[in-house]
UniProtKB/TrEMBL annotation, chain A:
N-terminal signal peptide: none
InterPro entries: CT_A_B, Cyclophilin-like_dom_sf, PxpC
Species name: Rhizobium loti (Mesorhizobium loti)
Gene3D superfamilies referenced in this protein's UniProt entry, alphabetically: Cyclophilin-like
The Carboxyltransferase domain, residue ranges: 23-309
Protein name in the entry: Biotin-dependent carboxylase-like uncharacterized protein
Organism taxonomic ancestry: Bacteria, Pseudomonadati, Pseudomonadota, Alphaproteobacteria, Hyphomicrobiales
Automatic annotation (TrEMBL), chain B:
Signal peptide: none
PANTHER family: 5-OXOPROLINASE SUBUNIT B
Protein name in UniProt: KipI family sensor histidine kinase inhibitor
Keyword presence, Metal-binding: no
Organism annotation: Rhizobium loti (Mesorhizobium loti)
Segments forming domain Carboxyltransferase: 6-205
Taxon lineage: Bacteria, Pseudomonadati, Pseudomonadota, Alphaproteobacteria, Hyphomicrobiales
Length: 326, 220
């Protein structure tokens, strides 16, 4: 059992989401930074899609009521387990009665907490992810509140004393969006050619910033106004996370994990799947830049991601040995 | 008449959008969209097929297939698949028109240049088809609205439209399965539940289902 001590409603239970129901209008959802949650779970010997907590509003505090182990990944923030500081991307034991504290991030926006065994919640439509829009999944379909108690599945994870950490090459020295713009690789989308040459040039040539209107559904950006060659009326169509829509205001919106499954605005581009974690870790006010790539490059980036996960599992098994839940 | 070749575009590295629209929404094209959606699920690497309005989003694993060859396969499916109406379920949805939970009723009637009673009578006289489910869980895009009742969406969407709201957006009709933002006009309210996440069949309506609205009351 864990008990939430300090939180905000943007903090939710997430796993790797509920794909397969787009045709019912149900978003994939799940962790905005999927890789961070997957690695946190793998560090503890969990299934990568075990349910953990996505912390989007810091500081965050919880108390554990049993001896267990936690892994904290995602944003670079000061973390303490009991009275012990915990480095970023680290898994370690935590004893009954101790508190886990995550302070405001130095770099990044979202932290992930995985628990040995994962949070014990009933799956809804195949997932424990919280769908706030539909008020289902996670803990009663809502964000976490002070005093919430969540059970853990039984587990043995056999961490080495002091725990262990992981470091992902691509995360090292990643742009923070403040001193340096975050680069997002994009593929052109259906209406790219319907925009003026000036808009096309501004989209990839200029920087954009993330406005306050940014959440798990999507981020509204501000920058140069993007104009169409002529007004366009589209029928509603399916969209995926990463879709960059341009509503009549000319200011783009990037659709994300909890986005509506259908939309009607013209689409100028799509952020490639392998770069969605960069958006998950981009705070309000962050500067962004779009970099056009080929479909081959975007597929290669995805292949590299999957390979990194396999390599990680192999490395973890070397350190900890293969574990099975009892 | 069904359009020949859909326009195919990339929707990121793992999805293709097939757009069969030629101007206004077309029922025959939609029947083809449903049939191609079913068939597409059998193609190697395809994960999901999501019918939109005269279009189809196909989500795939780019490490199991590639956009180029999948696009070709989908194009030939589009050309060879027999469009057929789905024998869907018929639903009667009781609606309380107007009042506090149908605040745009009078404005809608004025826009259509008809009395409130006549506007409501026409809305309830038509048989609607669920063309697609999407945007939010269980939301039906309904075709079959009397063209005289069409009303372009609000320029500024409302941040909250209540669950059960019966709405009009352009030439489309709909029902809100949950409270959410919407730019459509609110003409009435129903107590019918469209989405229950915990149920074995979470959505009430499916593409191909038909709907009649029954007048439970009119409050000007």
């Amino acid at each position: 059992m864990i008990e939430i001590l300090t939180t905000g409603l943007p903090n939710t239970v997430q796993d790797l989401g509920r794909p397969g129901h787009l045709a019912l209008g149900v978003s994939h959802g799940g962790a905005m930074d999927r890789q961070a949650l997957a690695i946190a779970n793998l560090m503890l010997g969990n299934d990568p899609s075990a349910a953990g907590i996505e912390v989007a509003l810091h500081p965050f505090r919880l108390r554990v009521h049993i001896d267990t182990a936690v892994a904290i990944t995602g944003a670079d923030c000061a973390v303490s387990v009991g009275d012990r500081p915990c480095p970023p991307w680290w898994a370690m034991a935590i004893r009954a009665g101790e508190t886990l504290v995550l302070e405001a991030p130095r770099i990044g926006a979202r932290s992930y907490i995985a628990f040995a065994g994962g949070l014990d919640l009933p799956p809804v439509m195949g997932s424990r992810a919280t769908d706030v829009k539909g008020s289902f999944g996670g803990l009663a379909g809502r964000g976490l509140s002070r005093g919430d108690r969540l059970a853990l599945n039984p587990a043995q994870c056999g961490l080495p004393a002091g725990g262990f950490g992981s470091a992902l090459e691509e995360r090292r020295g990643a742009a923070d969006g403040a001193a340096c713009a975050i680069e997002l690789r994009v593929l052109p989308a259906a209406e790219f050619d319907a925009f003026t040459p000036e808009a096309q040039a501004a989209f990839t040539g200029n920087e954009w910033s993330i406005t306050n209107d940014a959440n798990r559904m999507g981020y509204r950006l501000s920058g140069e106004t993007l104009s169409l060659l002529s007004p366009l009326e589209l029928l509603s169509h399916g969209i995926v996370p990463g879709t960059v829509q341009v509503p009549p205001s000319g200011q783009p919106i990037i659709q994300l994990a909890d986005a509506n499954t259908c939309g009607g605005y013209p689409k100028i581009a799509t952020v490639i799947e392998a770069d969605l974690w960069r958006l998950a870790q981009a705070p309000v006010g962050a500067r962004l830049r779009f970099l056009p790539v080929s479909i081959e490059a975007s597929t290669e980036a995805l292949r590299a991601n999957r390979q990194r996960r396999r390599d990680f599992i192999a490395a973890r098994n070397l350190i900890v040995g293969k574990q099975r839940a009892p | 008449m069904v359009a020949g070749t859909p326009h195919i575009s990339l929707a990121g590295s793992g999805a293709l959008l097939l757009d069969g629209a030629q101007g206004a929404f077309n029922d025959a094209t939609q029947e083809l969209v449903w049939a191609v959606a079913d068939a597409a699920l059998n193609l190697e690497g395809v994960r999901e097929a999501v019918p939109g309005m005269n279009n189809l989003l196909v989500v795939f694993d780019p490490l199991a297939t590639d956009a180029q060859s999948l696009g070709e396969q989908l194009k030939s499916l589009w050309a060879s698949t027999e469009a057929s109406a789905i024998a869907g379920t018929h639903h009667t949805i009781p609606v309380s028109y107007g009042g506090a939970r149908g605040e745009d009723l009078a404005g809608w009637a004025a826009h259509c240049g008809m009395s409130v009673d006549e506007t409501v009578r026409r809305h309830a006289a038509a048989t609607y088809t669920v063309a697609a489910i999407g945007a939010m869980p269980g939301f039906p895009y309904l075709s079959g609205l009397d063209p005289r009742l069409a009303w372009a969406r609000r320029s500024t969407p409302r941040l909250k439209v209540a669950e059960g709201a019966v709405i009009i957006g352009g030439a489309q009709a709909g029902i809100m399965p949950m409270t959410a933002p919407s730019g459509w006009h609110i003409i009435g309210h129903t107590d019918v539940t469209l989405f229950r996440a915990e149920a074995e069949l979470p959505v009430l309506l499916r593409p191909g289902d038909t709907i009649r609205f029954a007048i439970a009351g009119i409050e000007a």
